[in-house]
Amino acid sequence: MRFALHLSFLLLPLSLLAGEPSAFGAGNLDSDNPYGLTEAEKKILQNKQILQQTKRNLRSQNNEIESLRERVDGLQSVLEAIAMKSQQNRVALGDLSKSRENEGSSTLERLQQLEAQTATNTENVLQLKTAIEELSKLIDQQSASLVTKEEYNALVDDVNTFKKLVATELKKKPGKSSGKKISNGDLATNAKNHYESKKYTQALEEYKELVNRKYKPARSHYMIGQIYYAKNDYGKAIAHYKESASLYKNASYMPILMFRTAVSMERTGDKKHAKSFYNAVIAKYPGSTEAMQSQERLNNLK
User: Fold this and answer.
1) 0.70 exceeded by the pTM?
2) What class, spelled out in words, does domain 6-22+183-300 have in CATH?
3) Which has the closest alpha carbon to 6: 254, 302, 279?
4) For residues 107 and 124, what is the distance between their CA atoms, to the nearest angstrom?
C-alpha cells in the first residue's frame, strides 16, 4: 500500500505534463510576474493591463468629479447666503433713505456703511459666479473625457473578442514565407550546424523560420528552447519547451526537455513546479543521466 501511494505521488507530475501545457507554470496571466509567455499570451496580457488601467482611470475621474461637485455645492451655498445678505442690506438701505432727513448725521453714516457693504457684497457675488462658471466648465471637460459604463463594457468585449481571434488565427494561420529558396531539410541542417557552433543568433532565426514553415515544429520549438536556455533566458526557454511537449510528448529528447524545464523553473524562482518536474524525470526515466542530475538538484533544493 505504501509503495502504491509513493508511486502515485511520483507519477503525479507526469499526469500534469500529459495535460494542458499550463502545467509548466508558464503563461499564467494572473501571476504578478508572468514568464514564459507566447506571442498570443503577450497580446492578451497587454490588453488585460490596458483594461486594468482604464478601471483605475475611471475611479480617479469619478473621485475628481465628485470633489468638484462638492466645491460647487459649497460655493452655491456661500453665494446664496451673500445674495440674501445683500438683499437685506438693500431693504435696510431703502428704509433708511426714507427717513434720512429726519434722523441726522448718524443715519447718514449708517447709510454710507450700508452702501459700501452692498457694493462689497455685489463684487463678491460676481466673483463667486465667475468661480462657479469656471468649475462648471472643468466638470464638463472631465465628464467629456470620462469613460462611461457602456464604453467600459465595450472595451471588455473587445478584449474577449481579441482573445478568440488570436486563438483562431494561431490554429489556421499559414507559415510565413521568408522568400528564401532553401529547402526545409537544408535549412534544418544549417540551423543544427549553427547551434553546434554556438552561433545562436543565426540558429535562432533559422529555427523560427522552420516553425513558420511548420516543418517539424515540435523539434524546432525544442531547439529554440535550447538556445534560450544556453543564453540564460529561462522564461522564453520554458515557453518553447512547453510548446514542444504539447506537440510531441514522446520525443526522444523529452528527458532533456523535462530536466531543463525544471532547471529553468528553479532559476526563475518557481521551486514548486521545479520539484514536480525533477520527480517526474526520476520516475519516468530511471537510470538516465537526467534522472541522476534531477536527484542531485532535488537534494540541494531547499
Assistant:
1) no
2) mainly alpha
3) 279
4) 25
